[in-house]
From TrEMBL:
Organism (species): Cupriavidus malaysiensis
Transmembrane region(s): none
Keywords per UniProt: DNA-binding, Transcription, Transcription regulation
Protein name: HTH luxR-type domain-containing protein
A Pfam family this chain is assigned to: GerE
The keyword Glycosyltransferase is annotated on this UniProt entry: no
Segments forming domain HTH luxR-type: 281-344
SUPFAM superfamilies found in the cross-reference section: C-terminal effector domain of the bipartite response regulators
Length: 344
């Protein structure tokens, strides 16, 4: 097994210069892609870019939180793996030692990154991992990881070669060790850029919107402070790294959606396997039926029950019914508060 932390390594000067040149040629397009590509497309292009520098048959790039039961995935991008690769790995991830090995001693993040290469035939892998590698035709693995403490958030990259291929060379391991920290930073930069782009689209709205990025299970990866504040206002007992449970129950993998109540308006849309989310104070139209809204606006503008009834061609008792519904949904109790909510 070849193992290397990032940083200066002992070797011939010519090898060091070639390695530095490879790192430089890789990093320039890496950060350029992070600025412009959508989430998901960026990860796919990163794997294609890496293939220009390291020969591999298939690859996997993931972001996760390290737990005692194995990595808990937030996002995952594969290249040329079998369709069931990630699902099969999920069944035996507690036996996967590669992320812990690549993260370095104790999984600490006090270095720029770490990488290991091993041959499945000779490495002391647990039986479930050997079976996985055999089924997926993986003989050689090159894995790099960057771990951020105290949250133990990890970016991990695995490059695979099939049986009959040569093992990874020391130069390959050192290259991954040098770039894994940059890859982690570029992923973060890409996601922040996407949030900024989303804010820019919606900043022209009359009501300012806050943004966040969550995974398909509702775990918050990035969020504006105002987004978190609005969640706390809408669900006063909520706190933590995951979205409130009523919101999490509405999430469906790969699909967008929306939710509105008297305190918050939320919408979300998929990008890659993550969710871009927006939050703002609710508009009356989010909460009221069309007739309730029409009655409430006329009444709030100063008309009496009878005047509203004549204007809309309905009975005064119907006006009162719609107003009771509007008061309850908007959580107001008098005409002044109703007018302020509708017109303010």
């Amino acid at each position: 097994m070849i193992q290397h932390p990032a940083g200066p390594a002992v070797g011939e000067t010519s090898r060091e210069l070639r390695l530095a040149a490879s790192v430089s040629r890789l990093l320039l397009p890496l950060y350029r892609l992070a600025l412009h590509e959508p989430i998901g497309a960026f990860e796919r292009q990163v794997l294609g870019l890496l293939r220009e520098f390291i020969d591999f048959d298939s690859a996997w790039l993931g972001c996760s939180t390290l737990t005692p039961g194995g990595p808990s995935l937030h996002s995952s991008q594969t290249l040329d793996t079998a369709p069931d690769f990630v699902a099969e790995w999920e069944q035996c991830k507690a036996d996967d030692p590669l992320v812990a090995l690549a993260a370095g001693p104790g999984g600490h993040a006090g270095h720029a990154g770490h990488a290991v290469a091993l041959c499945v035939r000779h490495a002391p892998l647990p039986a479930p991992m050997r079976i996985l590698c055999a089924r997926q035709r993986i003989r050689h693995v090159l894995c790099g990881a960057q771990v951020a403490l105290p949250a133990r958030r990890a970016t991990h990259l695995s490059l695979y070669r099939a049986p009959g291929r040569r093992p990874y060379a020391e130069r390959d391991v050192r290259l991954v060790a040098c770039v894994i920290g940059h890859l982690d930073a570029a992923l973060d930069h890409n996601r922040q850029c996407r949030l900024r782009a989303m804010r820019a689209v919606h900043d022209t709205a009359a009501v300012p919107q806050a943004a966040a990025l969550a995974d398909a299970w509702g775990r918050i990866l990035h969020a504006d402070a105002s987004f978190l504040a609005q969640l706390q206002q809408a669900w006063p007992g909520w706190h933590g790294a995951a979205l409130p449970e009523p919101l999490r129950l509405r999430l469906q993998p790969g699909t967008g959606g929306h939710l509105a109540n008297a305190r918050i308006r939320l919408s979300w849309e998929p990008e890659g396997d993550l969710l871009l989310m927006r939050a703002s104070p609710p508009a009356p139209g989010d909460l009221l039926a069309p007739r309730e809204l029409a009655v409430a606006r006329l009444f709030g503008s100063g008309l009496s029950h009878k005047e509203v009834a004549r204007r809309l061609g309905i009975a005064p008792t119907t006006v009162r019914h719609h107003l009771r519904q509007a008061y309850a949904k908007l959580e107001v109790s008098d005409k002044g508060a109703l007018a302020s909510r509708l017109l303010g």
